[in-house]
Each structure stands twice: as structure tokens, then as C-alpha cells.
């Protein structure tokens, strides 16, 4: 899976499952500020990412995640580590 595939799928999850306007998603923007998700939404996000990408995410994985690009890179690294 390429980074482009990951970005497309993650953005699709944000739009479809969290009703985020796709126009506000940009790699350099702050993930938390842009999405405005609460703690329960983050749990749902983790579950959705794990189900869609076959990876496990823990609290420690989110340390240092600020932008959408950071999040995409995290998922890419998790996928590569599973293979």
C-alpha cells in the first residue's frame, strides 16, 4: 500500500465516519485542531484505523502526532512493520 493509498483511505474515514468536510483536510494542518474530535471520537478513530489497515495503535503511538501528515506517516510505518 502506497502513502497515497493510505492518505486516500484515511481521509475517506474522516469524511464518511466523522462527517469531516474533506476540503479542510490538508497534510500540514494540525490534526486535533482541524477535526475537533473528542476523546470518544479518537477511540472510534483508532478502532476504524485498526479495522481498515490491520494495524494496532496505542496511546504511545500518538505522541508527537500533530499534523495529518504525521498521522499518515504513523499508519504507513505501522503497515510496514506488520509485513
TrEMBL record:
GO terms for molecular function: acyl carrier activity. The gene is acpP. InterPro entries: ACP, ACP-like_sf, PP-bd_ACP. The modification O-(pantetheine 4'-phosphoryl)serine is found at residue 39. Keywords: Cytoplasm, Fatty acid biosynthesis, Fatty acid metabolism, Lipid biosynthesis, Lipid metabolism, Phosphopantetheine, Phosphoprotein. It is found in: Cytoplasm. Pathway: Lipid metabolism; fatty acid biosynthesis. This is Acyl carrier protein. The keyword Phosphoprotein applies. GO terms for cellular component: cytoplasm. Carrier of the growing fatty acid chain in fatty acid biosynthesis. Residues 1-79 form the Carrier domain. 4'-phosphopantetheine is transferred from CoA to a specific serine of apo-ACP by AcpS. This modification is essential for activity because fatty acids are bound in thioester linkage to the sulfhydryl of the prosthetic group. Belongs to the acyl carrier protein (ACP) family.
